[in-house]
């Protein structure tokens, strides 16, 4: 069965899934394989739960009624998404970057949804599987689509662009993320810039911050839309407050580092003719979730939970912002940063030196990488050590910053802070 025939089956309901635990009626089940699982083995279960067909690539699981045998399930999923994209009339905005992708995506989405039927990447479905699934979640009713693209090596963004075929693009920043896979900061810049290269090659358009010289340089031959010049930062202690077109926006986002994320959402809203009052309303009502700069008020402690992910660039701005907050009683809990390769030792020591320089009342470094650093403050090699220490030494009346890579799971410490 070729991709056109599979598309006819898909377009009856516009439903696909790769997880039998989430199967919906009349969905197409794609039996993906990974290091520790083989989706082909679950094809019959998917059908029993309501899937109309299961796309498989191992003949022993094939029957002529409910399975479709293909050469490679993942490639078929990607090809189906690519084919679907060609049928969509929706305007697609792609975004990538080292920090702030998800917050930016959500801000753009809430702004554009004030005027358009809009859909965006859910969660962090932003890789070679997530982007196809995102596109296949779009129906012909969508007018705008926001597609987040993540990458940890060269040519990945280029490949994702070949599937999503974006009309517009935006790169949040070039930072110290995934250094191991990209081969250093220059590799990050090269890899992320594949989005701009795609836009240039296909005569599409980039949104850029005119104050970022590197962004200006990388979009030299591209159609560009610059940030609205009327957008001005007023305050960020702790919540970002800004003005645009004589309007004042008071947000639920902390830290001046979120200014650019808000500014591009405003700029995109203006460009697509969303009313100023609607832009203001959308941004003021947006509250971050999922461990991203969440404000949590406990009985005696005020917590900034930013434990969804971390790299040296995001750690630096989070610490600098936290240091500016008014309070003598501050505690920082930092967890290891992953995927730094040979740069891990020097980057962790840099963060330790920076955090130590602020002389917070309490500073805790958690993880094997931080344990190798030199510091005057507390080092704990594992989360369990942190848990034991906090249980024996309760934190009281503190402003607390919690930040670390996803794999550290530092949000668990909330269970032991009152």
Automatic annotation (TrEMBL):
Annotated pathway: Cell wall biogenesis; peptidoglycan biosynthesis
What's a Gene Ontology MF term here?
UDP-N-acetylmuramoyl-tripeptide-D-alanyl-D-alanine ligase activity
Q: Per its UniProt entry, what is the enzyme's top EC class, as one word?
A: ligase
Main location, first listed in the record: cytoplasm
Q: What reaction does this enzyme carry out catalytically?
A: D-alanyl-D-alanine + UDP-N-acetyl-alpha-D-muramoyl-L-alanyl-gamma-D-glutamyl-meso-2,6-diaminopimelate + ATP = UDP-N-acetyl-alpha-D-muramoyl-L-alanyl-gamma-D-glutamyl-meso-2,6-diaminopimeloyl-D-alanyl-D-alanine + ADP + phosphate + H(+)
* Location of this chain's protein in the cell: Cytoplasm
Binding, ATP? 97-103
Q: What is this protein called?
A: UDP-N-acetylmuramoyl-tripeptide--D-alanyl-D-alanine ligase
Under the heading InterPro entries, the entry gives: Mur-like_cat_sf, Mur_ligase_C, Mur_ligase_C_dom_sf, Mur_ligase_cen, Mur_ligase_N, MurCDEF_CellWall_CoF430Synth, MurE/MurF_N, UDP-N-AcMur_synth
Q: Which organism is it from?
A: Polaribacter marinaquae
| Keyword Cell cycle attached | yes
Function, as annotated, reads: Involved in cell wall formation. Catalyzes the final step in the synthesis of UDP-N-acetylmuramoyl-pentapeptide, the precursor of murein.
Q: Give the record's keywords alphabetically.
A: ATP-binding, Cell cycle, Cell division, Cell shape, Cell wall biogenesis/degradation, Cytoplasm, Ligase, Nucleotide-binding, Peptidoglycan synthesis
Q: Where is the Mur ligase C-terminal domain?
A: 292-369
What's the Enzyme Commission number for this chain? Answer: 6.3.2.10
The family annotation for this protein states:
Belongs to the MurCDEF family. MurF subfamily.
Residue ranges constituting the Mur ligase central domain according to the UniProt record: 96-268
Question: What Pfam families does the database record attribute to this sequence?
Answer: Mur_ligase (PF01225), Mur_ligase_C (PF02875), Mur_ligase_M (PF08245)
Q: Which residues form the Mur ligase N-terminal catalytic domain?
A: 16-83
Q: Domain of life here?
A: Bacteria
